[in-house]
Design brief:
Length: 179
């Protein structure tokens, strides 16, 4: 996706730092290749959320994962999660979609809060065919539930509100979530 000056990843980096650098010792960093999370260590005094290829959407997605990860997970490389790469079979893809529903719901929220188009990621170009619309509907339902039940993670609320302020967007309601 073409990156405009309005939606340049540097703005996300700055918003994220204002929200979390001091309280969580964590920064958002553009990477060269695959995204990952690196907890602080001897080489880096800060926790780093590294997003792929300087993509705005990747930064939003990786931030969503960080907002969900608990304290113990944030002490492990890539939160200690196992990842099945592109080429997943039907069962692997079903599991992927189940665990990705909440992070992608938060990514959608963040996208709405900064006026950036959201697209679900099925992340399986060389595997089984995926029903993107059905997955998008599940992600939308997850976001509806989080908003209606006031069950958004605390860090997600802080970041989303800061994005609304930075990008001059309103807090999203159910009507804002279009399939």
């Amino acid at each position: 996706m073409h990156q405009t000056s309005e939606h340049h990843y540097q703005r996300l980096i700055e918003v994220f730092e204002r929200c979390f650098k001091e309280d969580y010792n964590t920064v958002l960093v553009p990477g060269e290749d695959e995204p990952y999370y690196q907890p602080a260590n001897q080489l880096n005094e800060l926790n780093q959320i590294v997003f792929a290829h300087g993509f705005f959407a990747s930064a939003l997605h990786e931030t969503a994962h960080w907002c969900i990860a608990g304290e113990a997970r944030r002490e492990q490389f890539d939160y200690g999660y196992w990842y099945e790469p592109d080429g997943r079979n039907h069962e692997q893809q079903k599991f992927f979609e189940q665990v990705e529903r909440k992070p992608q719901a938060l990514e959608w929220l963040f996208s709405l809060c900064c006026g950036f188009p959201f697209q679900v990621s099925v992340d399986n170009l060389n595997g089984v065919e995926v029903d993107r619309h059905a997955f998008a509907a599940k992600v939308a339902e997850q976001l509806f539930q989080l908003l209606e039940n006031n069950s958004l993670p605390t860090r997600a609320v802080r970041f989303a509100k800061a994005l609304c302020h930075e990008f001059n967007c309103s807090w999203p309601d159910r009507q804002a979530i279009n399939l």
